[in-house]
Design a protein that fits this description.
Elements lengths: L6 E7 L1 H5 L3 H11 L2 E8 L3 H7 L9 H8 L4 E8 L2 H9 L12 H5 L8 E3 L3 H11 L19
Antiparallel strand pairs: 1-3, 1-4, 2-3
The structure holds guanosine-5'-diphosphate and magnesium ion.
Cofactor: Mg(2+)
Catalytic activity: a 2'-deoxyribonucleoside 5'-diphosphate + ATP = a 2'-deoxyribonucleoside 5'-triphosphate + ADP
Keywords: ATP-binding, Kinase, Nucleotide-binding, Transferase
Length: 154
């Protein structure tokens, strides 16, 4: 990473978000905030990858349904970089249950059901590291600087 005060998070537009044409909307919000995309791809994830991604939830009653939902179509997987992007990414996504999400958040603006909540965001810096390594190869991540960096950061 180019700047030690920057961090990275894994954000994915889930199959329902892709089907509903929200890839651009979600990218737009992170871009407009000043965050930098360092990787992005449309991928129809194999179940093994999704089971690994959600392995901490394996004992939940909704786990099988969750893996089915996430493998029902392609997702748009991304890595975003910037100051406190893990925490801010979660705030921009909203609460897990869209009905509990504030308007202005992605889930609060576009979702209703928890099992169709449009997007994923890493919940901690360590989780982000694991998820980025799971979904992307090192060479898929682009290290570059925004030319307008000094207009985003003081
Ligand atoms: P997140 O970090 O906000 O995505 O939430 P979790 O890590 O707790 O759960 C992962 C995903 O599982 C959520 O985004 C939902 O898609 C799904 N999920 C969580 N809780 C429930 C639930 O109670 N019912 C159903 N059907 N899905 C759930
Ligand atoms: Mg989670």
């Amino acid at each position: 990473m180019t700047d030690p005060k920057q961090e990275r998070t894994f954000i994915a537009v889930k199959p329902d978000g892709v089907q509903r044409g929200l890839i651009g909307e979600i990218i737009k919000r992170f871009e407009a905030r000043g965050y930098k995309m360092v990787a992005g791809k449309l991928i129809w994830a194999p179940k093994d990858l999704l089971k690994n991604h959600y392995k901490d939830l394996a004992d939940k009653p909704f786990y099988n349904g969750l893996v089915e939902y996430m493998s029902s179509g392609p997702v748009f997987a991304m890595v975003w970089e910037g100051k406190e992007v893990v925490k801010m990414g979660r705030q921009m996504l909203g609460a897990t249950n869209p009905l509990a999400s504030m308007p202005g958040t992605i889930r609060g603006d576009f979702g209703i059901d928890v099992g169709r909540n449009i997007c994923h965001g890493s919940d901690a810096v360590e989780t982000a590291r694991r998820e980025i390594a799971l979904w992307f190869k090192e060479e898929e991540l682009s290290d570059y600087e925004f030319a307008n960096k000094s207009w985003i950061y003081e």
